[in-house]
Amino acid sequence: MSRASSLFQLWQTPPNRLLFKSSNFYKGIYVVPGAKIYRPLCSCKSIQTTSYQVVNGSYVPTTQAKQEIKPTEKSSAELENIGAFQKLPMVMPSFDILYSALRKAKRVPATKGIANIAKRERNRGAKQLDALMKELAVPLRTYLEKFPKKRSLHPYERSLIELTLGDGNYEEVLGRVDALRKKVVSVGKEHASLCAKSLSKREAEERLSEGMKKIEEMFNREGKAVEDLLNIAKTLRSMPVVDLETPTLCLVGAPNVGKSSLVRVLSTGKPEICNYPFTTRGILMGHILSSYQNFQVTDTPGLLKRSDEDRNNLEKLTLAVLSHLPTAILYVHDLSGECGTSPSDQFVIYKEIKERFCDHLWLDVVSKSDLLKESPVTFITEDFDDNDLELAKYRKSGPDGAIRVSLKSEIGLNELKGRVHELLRLQMARIQAQDTKEENRQVLT
Ligand SMILES: Nc1nc2c(ncn2[C@@H]2O[C@H](COP(=O)(O)OP(=O)(O)OP(=O)(O)O)[C@@H](O)[C@H]2O)c(=O)[nH]1
Ligand SMILES: [Mg+2]
After folding, report:
1. Which pLDDT belongs to residue 441?
2. Nearest-CA residue for atom 21 of ligand 1
3. Is residue 296, in this structure, part of any structural domain at all?
4. What CATH number did the domain enclosing 152 receive?
5. Cα(334) to centroid of ligand 1, in Å?
6. N or C: which end of the chain has fewer CB within 10 A?
7. Which tens digit of pLDDT belongs to each residue from 50-106?
8. Is the CB of 274 under 6 A from ligand 1?
9. Is 15 in the pocket of ligand 1 (CB under 6 A)?
């Protein structure tokens, strides 16, 4: 059976087979602003197949390794593209950089033809210190050139950096790597120059070993900046890849309303499902592969009723997706209130989001309809104004046109899948229209 047809079957699979299977595939991770270990928020489903070789202290894909690494400013055409995280260099641990540099520097001989022993020794010492300085500084400079400036990134990736690494941490770590590079250069130059002025063979040997020791100690002391950079690269590289040309469905709603459960049924995505809020702690991508078309599905953390200033980084991630990616929205409502957020509060959140993102294609779904036999059934007590007819209507059946589904009783799922397909086809038409508009604009300018 081909891969496409087996995935198509997944799309058709009865939901209860998928829903209540516990999954260890996706493990959410808490965002701790300021934390120095940057563990990925999201699962990475792409498998690395490229081979790498070491160039200037970076693991570079073999296909790129022979190309010269030039520090170039990004052209304006490159600025707005998504995918910068997949191009980040593979950073070597500071220990590896240091010991590779020491090994290479110690092999550097004196210039040929110097007969005087003292002269030869100070020449050798200065050259070795200079080599050590370069072997350490060049990889650091290469990293600094290859980690993009935040302002040159797509706004979505910029938000991911701020919300997953903590505000300012990316720049702070790059700043520390640059400071280390500068120290290596200055201490290396100082000791190479001292060694070059030695009056005897013995003095040259002593100054060489003193210089090497100083640089080594400094690199050991401050090399943590490189480790932090390595962790940042790992975290960012594991962020799910979004293709702006592929129609995307984004599931949004209050925490615990059943978004991830629906992602599992609608797509290949396998987010964790639990009966507590904020199970989903990052952006997770799944795919819908129908007969001829590939669609993306993103699961997002839940939104609470509160102002933007009070929102946690997880909620901000959801808003970043909606603000910066051209997704269609599947908004999930749990009118039973079993999720922990009352229908009245969900209504407030819904109205705010709908107003803010009214230009997105939209579909409403009322989840857990097995719990709504005598709707509205509220699991939590809430005060609400009986005279608010709009709210009363919402509490009974959700927004106009909402589809009722239950994963437990398998109600409404075929209708939902059909409507999702329709929505994504419309999204495809939007993307194509946008591309044509862009091409026409480029022809005219
Ligand atoms: N009764 C019933 N429970 C459901 C249904 N769909 C999901 N649930 C349960 O609702 C709970 C929350 O489901 P999730 O899919 O994790 O909800 P979520 O919106 O992704 O939650 P967060 O990631 O925390 O925002 C789980 O215990 C699910 O088993 C349904 O159709 N009926
Ligand atoms: Mg979830």
Report:
1. 85
2. 256
3. yes
4. 1.20.120.1190
5. 9
6. C
7. 333 444 444 333 434 334 334 444 444 344 578 899 999 999 999 999 999 999 999
8. yes
9. no
